[in-house]
Write a structure and sequence with these properties.
The protein is an alpha/beta fold. It comes from Streptomyces wedmorensis. This is Acetyl-CoA acetyltransferase.
Length: about 375
């Protein structure tokens, strides 16, 4: 009889970062391997248990090439590539596969030398995702990726009165969290005036409204519940997941102020049997300040149009506790880093800011929500520890 998801729970038992920030001498494959080794050591399990691999963004046949480099021969693979949401979507697929008995232990692993490659002139900064397919109808008008986010931010400002200062506060708070994180790439505090006074990139975004470009990688190991007792670390359970795609051309995006997290978040919370009010912290994709603001609205942590005021609240939900892509690291598809930080927080192992509940106990529930493209895709994962 097939194993049902209700009969087989899935836990994250290993997480780790590779070297991050400025890594000039490593290859992306080396960062994959370093992160994988560290995550496996974190779990305390033997490598022979891994029978599933999820990888994207490297090589012609991403999971095949990465698996070979790591010395793995998985019987379950995933190479879903939906931008920054990739890893939350992959985590959902991996959890389903483990729950169904198609795999016992799935490794999600990523590595990128995005910063080093540009410095060494092995590549240039990408202004566009290409001009084929539906995108051919927008490219002649000069829509860069950043410009698309900037237009969406301007619509939110027009529709809800969101201010430049409120958007800047997102960057200020991210840097405040990063200042406590020894692993963050940029740790010096910034002010609202410094954010507003920086070089203009795409109106209304100045430089500090935009994510940094770094090198780095990370890995997450998910296993079936029967292996948890053999792990070095306490399990963090995958409670619910959701995924959604919205559009690729801006003309097909019905509302610039609503992201696909409005669907993926609702699904994840419903499947986890919890509500946003139950959550202790959120790790959300923040390639730009507006992403943080609108994702928090769409996940239900504040009402639509109130994201700008959210960061002025005294006792608000902790968000992007490591400093996020705006200040900690952003080597490309950053979604896997969100899962790593969420798990560290639930374990009480955050290297910087450690979230505590009002009674001083460790957090019990966290959400990680990744966004891909220009709000084209979203994956949301609700995680919890044993209570």
């Amino acid at each position: 009889m097939p194993i049902t998801r209700s009969a087989r729970r899935v836990a994250v038992v290993g997480v780790s970062l590779s070297d991050c920030g400025r890594v000039d001498e490593a290859t992306p494959y080396a960062l994959h391997a370093q992160a994988a080794r560290r995550a496996l050591a974190d779990s305390g399990l033997d490598r022979s248990l891994i029978d599933g691999l999820a990888s994207a963004g490297l090589g012609t046949l991403a999971p095949v090439e990465v698996a070979e480099y790591l010395g793995l021969r998985p019987r379950w693979v995933d190479s879903t590539a939906v931008g920054g949401a990739t890893w939350e979507v992959m985590a959902a697929h991996a959890a389903d596969a483990i729950a169904a008995g198609h795999a016992n232990a799935v490794l999600l692993v990523y590595g990128s030398t995005a910063r080093a490659d540009i410095r060494a002139r092995r590549r240039t900064a990408n202004l566009s995702f290409g001009s084929r397919g539906p995108l051919q109808f927008e490219v002649p008008y000069g829509h860069t990726l950043i410009a698309k986010y900037a237009m969406a931010a301007r619509r939110h400002m027009h529709q809800y009165g969101t201010t430049l200062e409120q958007l800047a506060e997102v960057a200020v708070q991210a840097r405040a969290n990063a200042s406590l994180n020894p692993e963050a790439m940029f740790r010096d505090p910034v002010t609202v005036d410094e954010v507003l006074g920086g070089p203009m990139i795409a109106d209304p975004f100045t430089k500090l409204h935009c994510c940094l470009r770094s090198d780095g990688g990370c890995a997450v190991l998910l296993v079936a519940e029967e292996y948890v007792q053999d792990c070095r670390t306490a399990p963090v359970w995958v409670l619910g997941t959701g995924e959604h795609v919205s559009h690729t051309t801006m003309s097909e995006w019905e509302d610039f102020t609503v992201s696909p997290a409005a669907v993926s978040g609702r699904l994840a919370f419903e499947r986890a049997g919890v509500s946003p009010a139950d959550v202790d912290l959120a790790e959300v994709y923040d390639a730009f300040t507006y992403m943080t603001l609108v994702t928090l609205e769409d996940l239900g942590f504040c009402a639509k149009g109130e994201g700008g005021a959210f960061f002025a609240e005294k006792d608000r939900l902790p968000v992007n506790t490591d400093g996020g892509g705006l200040s900690a690291c952003h080597p490309g598809m950053r979604g896997l880093f969100l899962l790593v930080e969420a798990v560290r927080q639930l374990r009480g192992e955050a290297p910087g800011l450690q979230v505590r509940r009002p009674d001083g106990s460790l957090p019990e529930l966290a959400v990680a929500s990744g966004t891909g493209g220009w709000f084209c895709s979203s994956g949301t994962v609700v995680l919890g520890r044993d209570r």
